């Protein structure tokens, strides 16, 4: 097969670690946890990341008894391993092409998604940066643009992060801990959803909105009402010492 440009986008697969002392129960990995035909009565989830939290919430809501990693010695029907992802770079001819991989097997690319081999690009999980669909999408677009003669970069400046737990958790920009490492003064505003009209009307008032070092635009913007996003303005106002409803 011949082509003017090649984009490697073979994704990733679940990583594995040895699980000791597992007797007579199945150990499943990553997305296999979404394909079970029967609901386990008790499940142990071995994970240190967001996907483990999401699986925990899912199985809890479906009615399983759920234990998370550090549960000690427990009797369960299934063990779900969710301990990260490894890139699909084996057996697809990358070494033969001379494409450089790092020690974890991910394809090394520059800011233009270029590998070390002329007109061979890579994007998505295979480059091991975020393991997220929307960053993979952005990287794929950039790789395609550059493979067809353009010169663009991915802007990783404000990658949003979400955990589909209950309550859900999401962040964008600098989180408080990182902001404190970078700046001497960090202003922080926290606004509880128990004071948010939308949350009250749905009866789900758990959680809060937090804003750190917020910009003026956040306060001057208009927010749809009733919405959860209104809480962002309230948190920003609180950070500036001008709380409105708390
Ligand atoms: C359970 C689960 C939940 C997730 N939830 C979220 C979420 O909520 N939000 C989010 O942003 N991300 C989520 N992700 C991550 C997201 O799915 C990935 O980051 C994203 O799909 C990566 O895109 P990609 O194009 O790099 O790889 P993929 O989407 O995996 O695509 C790779 C493709 O390459 C094909 N392929 C592999 N090897 C070969 C080969 N040798 N020859 C030809 N084709 C090949 C595969 O079949 C596949 O179609 C989740 C992932 C999992 C597993």
What would you note in describing this structure?
This protein is of the alpha/beta class and 246 residues long. The chain folds into three domains: 6-13 and 86-154, FAD/NAD(P)-binding domain; 17-82, FAD/NAD(P)-binding domain (3-Layer(bba) Sandwich), CATH 3.50.50.60; 172-239, Enolase-like, domain 1, CATH 3.30.390.30. It has seven helices and twelve strands. The protein has a four-stranded parallel β-sheet, with helices on one face. It has a two-stranded parallel sheet with strand order 1-8. A two-stranded antiparallel sheet has the order 2-7. A hairpin with a 5-residue loop joins β9 (161-163) and β10. The longest helix has 15 residues, at 133-147. The N and C termini lie far apart (64 Å). Bound molecules: flavin-adenine dinucleotide (FAD).
Relevant terms:
7 helices; 246 residues; flat; single chain; alpha/beta; 3 domains; binds flavin-adenine dinucleotide; FAD/NAD(P)-binding domain
Brief summary:
The protein is α/β, with parallel strands linked by helices and 246 residues long. The chain has 7 helices and 12 strands.
Secondary-structure map:
Elements: E1 6-8, E2 12-14, E3 26-29, E4 42-47, H1 50-62, E5 65-68, E6 78-82, E7 85-87, H2 94-97, E8 120-122, H3 133-147, E9 161-163, E10 169-171, H4 176-182, E11 188-192, H5 197-202, E12 208-212, H6 216-220, H7 230-239
Parallel strand pairs: 1-8, 3-6, 4-5, 4-6
Antiparallel strand pairs: 2-7, 9-10, 11-12
This protein binds flavin-adenine dinucleotide.
């Amino acid at each position: 097969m011949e082509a003017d440009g090649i984009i490697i986008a073979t994704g990733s697969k679940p990583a594995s670690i040895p699980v000791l002392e597992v007797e007579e129960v199945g150990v499943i990995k990553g997305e296999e946890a979404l394909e079970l035909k029967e609901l386990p009565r008790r499940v142990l989830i071995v994970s240190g990341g967001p996907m483990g939290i999401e699986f925990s919430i899912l199985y809890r809501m479906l009615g399983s008894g759920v234990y998370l990693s550090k549960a000690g010695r427990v009797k369960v029907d299934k063990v779900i391993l969710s301990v990260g992802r490894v890139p699909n770079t084996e057996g697809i001819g990358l070494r033969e092409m001379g494409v450089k991989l790092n020690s974890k097997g991910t394809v090394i690319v520059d800011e233009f998604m270029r590998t070390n081999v002329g007109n061979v690009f890579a994007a998505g999980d295979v480059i091991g940066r975020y393991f997220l669909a929307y960053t993979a999408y952005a990287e794929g677009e950039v790789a395609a643009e550059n493979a067809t003669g353009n010169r663009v970069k991915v802007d990783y400046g404000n990658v949003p992060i979400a955990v589909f737990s209950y309550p859900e958790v999401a962040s964008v920009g600098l989180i408080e801990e990182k902001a404190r490492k970078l700046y001497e003064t960090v202003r922080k505003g926290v606004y509880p959803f128990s004071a948010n009209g939308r949350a009250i009307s749905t009866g789900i008032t758990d959680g809060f909105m937090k804003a750190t070092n917020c910009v003026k635009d956040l306060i001057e913007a208009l927010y749809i009402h009733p919405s959860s996003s209104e809480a962002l303005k309230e948190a920003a106002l609180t950070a500036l010492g001008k709380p409105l409803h708390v």
